[in-house]
Amino acid sequence: MEKHTITAMFDDYQAAEKAVTRLKNAGIPASDISLVGGNEQMRKSRPDNLSGTTETTNEDVGTGAAVGAALGGGAGLLAGLGLMAIPGLGPVVAAGWLVSTLVGAGAGAATGGVIGALIDAGVPEEHAHAYAEGIRRGGTLVTVRTEQRFVDKAVDILDDDGTVKMDERTTSWRKEGWSGRYGGTLSSTSSPAQAGSIPIIKEELKVGKRQVAGGRVRIHTHVMQQPVQEQVTLTDERVRVERRPVDRPATAADRLMQDRTVEATERREEPVISKEARVKEEVSLSKSVDRRTETVRDTVRNTKVEVEDTRGRKRPTGTG
Questions:
Q1: So what's the pLDDT on residue 318?
Q2: Would residue 303 count as lying in a domain?
Q3: For a Cys staple, 154 with which of 104, 140, 144, 199, CB 3.0–4.6 Å?
Q4: What is residue 226's predicted lDDT score, i.e. its pLDDT?
């Protein structure tokens, strides 16, 4: 049976924990839910973990275990909730099917850690890098991989006020210098240029496309009761005893003196109700595709070079 993947990032671990509880209460199996939480307190105590190394020391595990116990106070949240080292992220608090994928035989190395696991589950690569970056910055990722019948419930629960709007968040990160790839934050110090050389830089405008949610349409059906009435003509029989005077000669049958009984049964009709369900209309959802052309406007920069020689003359030498 085909499974669908729904993801949501939370800044607050407790908000993520509540979302997981609501998902389970909605009937979604715990085996379809995963949680990966960035351990910010441990990273602050061990700054070298910011580089994304997967090496874990005893000190890391001790610190992380204490933090994990504090975060995962609800032991029944998800089975196996605890500290583990995920390739590319280092020690994190994690549990669920996504973690099982990562700790499988060689899965971490084969699929590139959490990014590869998300991509394998159907998450676009661009979004997978953003989620990994969010975990690295201390966020908590809740991922549901479930059947179609639970998709709407999962979306409603994860589309809550505590959910991070990833489009806005990644835009903010890019303004800070994030490259759009996990761990690709630009350094404030750059490699020194060769002595006696100045790089000539020219920006080029590149326009790509991405899909964004434009709203949802749902169809709900409700069973309503409506009183109706119909008229039906019924027939009732009545037996009447009639006595009428006669004066005629008695026949042989009349002269037989014996006991006789004459009987008549009354009958009446009563309404009989039956129902037949008939389909009067069908409602379905379909999609149509409209294409439009937009003009994207922006500015690009380039380095203008001006050379001044020792004789004091200036001459422009063009642009890069």
A1: 52
A2: no
A3: 144
A4: 85
How far apart are the C-alpha atoms of 38 and 50, rounded to whole Å? Answer: 11
Positions of E strands within the chain = 4-10, 33-38, 82-86, 90-96, 140-146, 304-308, 314-319
Q: Is residue 270 part of a domain?
A: no
Number of domains in the chain: 1
Structure confidence at residue 242 as a pLDDT band (50, 70, 90): confident
pLDDT greater than 80 at residue 227 = yes
* 271 domain-assigned: no
Range of the domain at 129: 4-176
The structure tokens listed for 274 are 């039956």
On the 0-12 / 13-18 / 19+ scale of CB atoms within 10 A, 256 is exposed
Mean per-residue pLDDT, 233-257:
84
Q: Are 6 and 158 in contact (CB under 8 A)?
A: yes
CA distance 88 to 91: 10
Q: Which residues of 181-191 are buried (b: 16+ CB within 10 A; e: fewer)?
A: ebbebeeeeee
Three-state DSSP at 215 gives coil
- Is 193's pLDDT higher than 50? no
Q: Are 202 and 302 in contact (CB under 8 A)?
A: yes
- % of the chain at pLDDT higher than 70: 73
- Which pLDDT tens digit goes with each residue over 81-107? 777 776 667 778 888 888 777 765 344
Residue 295 lies in a domain: no
How many alpha carbons lie under 13 Å from residue 99 in its C-beta half-sphere? 23
* Adjacent-strand bridge partners of 249: none
